[in-house]
Design a protein that fits this description.
alpha/beta, Barwin-like endoglucanases, Transferase, Pyrimidine Nucleoside Phosphorylase, Chain A, domain 3, Pyrimidine Nucleoside Phosphorylase, Chain A, domain 2, 4 domains, 17 helices, about 20% strand, globular
């Protein structure tokens, strides 16, 4: 039998095993690289993608190396004897083939696929095949089936029958960190809002990344319940709760392939909300030339799909269209976005007004789920809680309850101003390009990296005046970001040359 060895290799959401080519127990020729194998030992088993190792310094010939994810899923200590065998394709792959052929899948088929995805029985290629086939054609009832299946597989949060409210944005707009303002406003009012947020995958910051500048977000379900019981809300990373794990597997392939269909988006978001025990939800859909939704027609289509699925699964959902033509606030990157949110909460005169107004709009919609609040008065109540200092007080309470962040973050010391090349007026902003500039600068890995954005659409500018400032902590990241920005700053200026 082989001996397990944990290798410090991050393979994202794919379980990977490593076999020495000179293994005395198994011939590598029988186990082709990238084939799927079963690993059995200690009464446990997992399926993993196999890589062949020639370098004996990495592992001994009688060892089986495991990636970090594979080691965590198998849950056995180093040195444990294990066996390997060729893995049979998961039976649910027959359903994927049906989908490739243009067929419509049953709820049972989606459940089988989801269970196999969550158990990491699919290779990246098989996942990609499912996603591409689904992107080509998926009916609304199929979206419903997928949503229900993904919500049912994995962890679930229960809240004893209470109304649980939440707010979610589909993303794509840099700096749109409204959750960090909405949550303390809503919690200060008294509604329960246990916000489980994601870390960034391809964006400069997720809500969890930004909140981690201020407080600990690595909170388990039991502690999360205690915080919500005491403070009515929280802002934590959802990874510990294992909510809709099949969705995380799909996302790991969707993002590199730039697959982001309305159908998959709806199933992804609503399955996680169902698993989190949410009963009432406000969904923010930004629309703009470089946003995920670029037309009124695409907005209406997605809104209707959200509303249909939400109704069918018992979610009370309100869909709100917002301006996605440019970044919200000034900061793009965790530290800078946390600064913006706290400026709004603390009533700082320098606070970005666009971020404040959008947060109040969304918080107002959430507050109107309260039966005691008269219709149309949600925004009034949200503004009252913000201006009175109640929201800021609640945010400080949430930060104290979650505990201090794992490390103190500071703004990146390397900085460069990207300036206007001509006099004129800002006509358009490329959100995707600015997000890329911030990410190349090191965000979100470096909390203090990113972009400080100075000019909005309609603002006059003079040649040589700063449009935005790039911050970075490492020289290499700094150079990458500057090079990308120099090829196109992402800001269109109309006017005389």
């Amino acid at each position: 039998m082989l001996r397990l060895k944990k290798l410090g290799i991050d393979t994202c959401h794919e379980t990977v095993a490593f076999l020495a080519r000179r293994c005395p127990l198994y011939r590598a020729e029988e186990f082709v690289a990238l084939a799927r194998i079963e690993i059995l030992g200690g009464g446990r088993r997992i399926v993993a993608t196999l890589n062949i190792v020639d370098d004996e310094r990495i592992m001994a010939a009688d060892e089986l190396g495991l990636s970090l994810l594979a080691h965590r899923h198998l849950g056995l200590p180093d040195g444990t004897p294990v066996e390997i065998a060729q893995a049979a394709p998961p039976p649910s792959l027959d359903h994927v083939r049906t989908k490739i052929d243009g067929g419509v899948l049953s709820p049972e088929a989606y459940m089988a696929i989801t269970q196999d995805l969550a158990a990491h029985r699919y290779s990246k290629m098989e996942i990609a095949a499912f996603l591409i086939a689904s992107a080509r054609f998926t009916t609304a009832p199929e979206v419903l089936s997928l949503t229900r299946a993904m919500a049912s597989v994995g962890g679930k949060l229960a809240w004893n029958g209470d109304m649980i409210v939440d707010k979610h944005c589909i993303g794509g707009i840099p700096g749109n960190r409204t959750s960090m303002i909405v949550v303390p406003i809503v919690a200060a009012h008294g509604l329960k809002i246990p916000k489980t947020s994601s870390r960034a995958i391809t964006s400069p910051a997720g809500t969890a990344d930004t909140m981690e500048v201020l407080a600990r977000v690595d909170v388990g379900p039991d502690e999360m319940r205690e915080i919500v019981a005491a403070e009515k809300g929280c802002l934590v990373w959802g990874g510990h709760a294992n909510l809709s794990p099949a969705d995380d597997v799909l996302i790991s392939v969707e993002r590199p392939l730039a697959i982001d269909t309305p159908e998959q988006m709806v199933a992804s978001i609503l399955s996680k909300k169902l698993a989190a025990g949410v009963t009432h939800l406000v969904i923010d859909l930004p629309v703009g030339p470089t946003a995920k939704l670029r037309s009124r027609e695409s907005f209406v289509r997605l809104r209707k799909l959200f509303e249909y699925i939400a109704d069918e699964v018992g979610l009370n959902a309100i869909v709100v269209g917002t301006d996605g033509s440019q970044p919200v606030g000034r900061g793009i990157g965790p530290w800078l976005e946390a600064r913006d949110a706290m400026q709004v909460l603390e009533r700082d005169p320098a606070a970005p007004r666009d971020l404040e107004e959008r947060a109040l709009l969304l918080a107002g919609h959430v507050l109107e789920f309260d039966p005691a609040l008269r219709g149309g008065h949600g925004v009034v109540r949200a503004r009252e809680l913000l201006e009175s200092g109640a929201a800021a007080k609640k945010m400080r309470q949430l930060m104290a309850a979650q505990g201090p962040p794992p490390e103190v973050s500071t703004l990146g010391a390397l900085r460069h101003d990207v300036v206007a090349s001509r006099d004129g007026v800002v006509e358009a902003v490329d959100c995707l390009r600015l997000a890329r500039v911030a990410r190349l600068a090191g965000a979100p890995i470096d909390k203090g990296a990113g972009v400080d954005f100075f000019k909005k659409i309609g603002d006059p500018v003079e040649k040589g005046e700063p449009l935005y400032r790039i911050h970075a902590a490492f020289e290499a990241d700094f150079r990458f970001s500057l090079k990308f920005a120099s090829a196109g700053d992402g800001v269109t200026i109309a006017g005389s040359t």
